[in-house]
Design brief:
The chain is α/β, with parallel strands linked by helices. It has 10 helices and 6 strands, in the order βαααααβαβαβαβαβα. The site of magnesium ion has 9 residues, from loops.
């Protein structure tokens, strides 16, 4: 029986992915590095640092550590400026209805995100108080597909892995759920690629599974 749902944030609760893409694109253009939507799909779910490592696969230059840190800051500053415009209207369709449904059923809710901007984003869209547990990029040492973020959320929910479900849009996130022995509902990009245990057309389809 499912007693808790662990949601990824970016691309599941709120559509911040376009802002991540635009900020990385600015950095890649400045550095003269080829970057496109296909490469961007590989950044879904993975940490900021690991995302930069993936982007730098297309560069021949060897960057010093301080240059890497400066690039991470450059990207995050652009990304943070775009988040200023986020409002509750940016919550993805079906999310609020699903959260209300889970409340009515007494099912616990958690966030399991790689993003260090999680708390800021949840505040901006007004959803912080809706989650029993929030595990974000500041609380983990290993990025998805490592199971750390979801295992931590599952333990803090005080549930067993088989009592939880993960909702994810990233292939790395689906793998992380599986590595945590938790079944995964795929939405967005991951659903298109049919990598979930359940591949959903709408996040509201979670209601049919629990
Ligand atoms: C994930 C996004 O949620 O967070 C990734 O899918 C992003 O694209 C990662 O790289 C880290 O985000 P942040 O906000 O800490 O740079
Ligand atoms: Mg995501």
């Amino acid at each position: 029986m499912i007693k808790g749902i662990i949601f990824d944030l970016d691309g599941v609760i709120v559509s911040t992915d376009k802002y991540h893409y635009l900020a990385w694109k600015k950095l890649a253009d400045r550095e003269g590095i080829y970057f496109d939507e296909k490469i961007n799909n590989r950044l879904r779910g993975v940490s900021r640092r690991e995302s930069l490592n993936i982007i730098l696969e297309k560069s021949n230059k060897i960057y010093r550590e301080e240059e890497i840190l400066a690039m991470l800051d450059f990207k995050n500053n652009i990304y943070r400026s775009s988040l200023i415009n986020l409002t509750p209207q940016d919550i993805l369709p079906g999310v609020v209805e699903l959260l209300d449904y889970l409340d009515a059923k007494g099912i616990k809710k958690a966030i399991g995100s790689s993003s260090k901007n999680t708390m800021y984003i949840l505040e901006r869209i007004g959803l912080t108080a809706h989650f029993n547990v929030i595990i974000d990029g500041t609380m983990i040492t290993k990025t998805k597909p490592n199971p750390e973020v979801f295992s931590k959320a599952q333990k803090q929910l005080e549930l067993e892995p088989q009592e939880c479900l993960v909702v994810e849009d990233a292939i790395a996130g689906i793998e992380a759920a599986h590595n945590a022995n938790i079944k995964a509902c795929a939405v967005g990009d991951a659903a298109l690629k049919q990598v979930g245990d359940f591949n959903l057309k709408s996040i509201l389809d979670v209601k049919e599974i629990i």
